Amino acid sequence: MQHATRRCPAAHPDDPTLCAGPVAVTVLDASNAGAQGCEHHAARLLASLDGGRVYALPDAPTGAAIRVFTTADTLRPFCWVDGPRTQPSQFSRAENRTPTAADSRPVAAREAATAPLAFPPRQGQSGDVPS
User: Fold this and answer.
1) Phi, psi of 88 (to 5 degrees)
2) Number of domains in the chain
3) Longest Cα pair distance anywhere in the chain, in angstroms?
4) Is 123 helix (H, G, I), strand (E, B) or coil?
5) What is the pTM of this model?
6) Looking at the structure, do residues 15 and 75 belong to the same domain, yes or no?
7) Same domain, yes or no, for 53 and 107?
8) Is the same domain home to 2 and 42?
9) Are strands 25-28 and 53-56 parallel, antiparallel or unpaired?
10) In terms of domains, do 13 and 62 share one?
11) Residues 74 and 61 in one domain
12) Do 44 and 71 have their domain in common?
């Protein structure tokens, strides 16, 4: 799905959302390939990478990289894709760390135990990347 509105380089082609603010950070993957982006799309990209890092651009607002990092922690990889998520790599890092009161296993472990595989893992974990 291509969008007519010009968006930052960190925006995934299938992500329907518009940029939120100016390009402020660079997100690097595990092999140091990078994309500059607004905080919104940078957080979505970082959440979808295994081993990604974020760096503020010189003219970025104070705290931009920290905001992207903390937001990415709570976002599920490829969060614009609907469907059941059954594997730990398909949940946010925060969900994978946080058990509930009723079950001491993290959310991803509980849901993975009861549902079939239906969504691709994070980019970099299996080589399969949604396009």
Assistant:
1) -55, -35
2) 2
3) 47
4) strand
5) 0.72
6) yes
7) no
8) yes
9) antiparallel
10) yes
11) yes
12) yes
CB 86 within 8 A of CB 111: yes
Structure tokens at 115: 């549902």
- Residue 15, domain extent: 1-81
Spell out the per-residue pLDDT of the chain, length 131, in tens: 344 468 999 999 999 999 999 999 999 999 999 999 999 999 999 999 999 999 999 999 999 999 999 999 999 999 999 888 888 888 899 988 876 655 566 665 555 555 555 555 666 655 444 44
Q: Does a structural domain hold residue 51?
A: yes
Based on the domain organization, do 95 and 37 belong to the same domain? Answer: no
Tokens of 98: 């946080």
C-alpha pair distances (Å), 22 with each of 8, 27, 71, 91, 124: 8, 15, 17, 28, 27
Tokens 């998520």, residue located? 85
* Residues linked to residue 106 through DSSP beta bridges, in sequence order: 99
Q: How many residues does the chain have?
A: 131
Residue 12: which of 67, 70, 77, 65 has the closest Cα?
77
Tokens representing 119 are 């969504």
Give the start-end residues of each E strand in 1-131: 25-28, 34-37, 53-56
